[in-house]
Amino acid sequence: MKISLSFWLCCLVLGLAGCVAGPSPQPNDPFYAPVMTPSPDSAPASNGSLYQASRQMNLFEDRKAGRLGDILTVVLTEKTVSKKSSNVEITKESDVSIPGANASVLGNPVHFKGLGLNTNLSSDREFSGEAGAAQSNNLIGDVAVSVVDVWPNGTLVVRGEKWLTLNQGDEVIRISGLVRPEDVRPDNTVLSTKVANARITYTGTGTLADSQSPGWLSRFFNSAYWPF
Q1: Residue 107 has pLDDT above 80, yes or no
Q2: How is 58-90 classified by DSSP, letter by letter?
Q3: What angle do CA 222, 130, 80 make, to 5 degrees?
Q4: Which of 38, 97, 108, 216 has the highest Cβ tally under 10 A?
Q5: Assigned domain for 144 exists
């Protein structure tokens, strides 16, 4: 049985289109899961003393995240604006004139089918291109994250996510990065602009998210796999 070339071409297009589309976020990703620290054994109570070795008492500081497993709130205040424009114009003109040669036979000028030997060439080329692009993004909200590691210098490694289940799909916000203890405010919050090496993702799944993305064939024609 012979398989036509169009069949293999369709298979190739479908395969490339599948490579172009990225995977959708999935809940319960272990990378964003909170770190569970083992509970310490309770020390015997000290009768007659207010101090307990098994309890933390912050008498002269605010209760802020600083240990493995602690929770702090990242205040999203992201706003980016970018604008780019380009204008290119190229003009080139050339003119070449070659006078006819003084060729004659027995005193008569040479002609070819009634045409002389005079030549005049001219060319005019012009190119003009203009492009512009503008983009702005604004992300405001709060995301609670947990401390998954503490470096020797006190820097906190935080990660967390927030899933919102709506009637037509899900929306997810994920964030990870590094936080200095000095940047954590007294109410145990930190601005997203203070998070180093931040990775912030805001996306969604479901009907609303699918309606805002092009189909697989459009993604293929707009991808680097399309040679034209």
Answers
A1: no
A2: -SSS-----STT-EEEEEEEEEEEEEEEEEEEE
A3: 70
A4: 216
A5: yes
Residue 54 CB-density burial (10 A; 0-12 exposed, 13-18 middle, 19+ buried): exposed
Residue 188 near residue 65, CB atoms below 8 Å: yes
pLDDT for 150 equals 93
pLDDT bin (cut points 50, 70, 90) of residue 134 is confident
Main-chain phi, psi angles of 220, to 5 degrees: -70, -45
Specify if 67 maps to a domain. Answer: yes
> pLDDT per residue over 149-160, tens digit each?
999 999 999 999
Is 122 in a helix, a strand, or coil?
Answer: strand
- pLDDT above 50 (res 20): no
Q: Ranked by mean pLDDT, which of 62-71, 72-81, 113-122, 176-185 comes out on top?
A: 176-185
Number of residues that make up the chain: 228
Domain that holds residue 70: 62-80+135-223
Q: Tell me, yes or no, whether 97 lies in a domain.
A: no
Q: Residue 147's closest CA among 182, 180, 191? A: 180
Place of tokens 């609670």: 144
Q: Which of 61, 30, 54 is nearest to 174 (CA)?
A: 30
- In the chain, the DSSP E strands lie at 71-98, 104-105, 108-109, 119-150, 156-166, 169-179, 189-191, 196-206
Helix (H, G, I), strand (E, B) or coil at 134: strand
Tell me the one-letter amino acid at 165. T
> Considering its fold, how many domains does the chain have in total?
1
Cα–Cα distance for residue pair 166/72, rounded to 1 Å: 25
> Is position 11 within any domain?
no
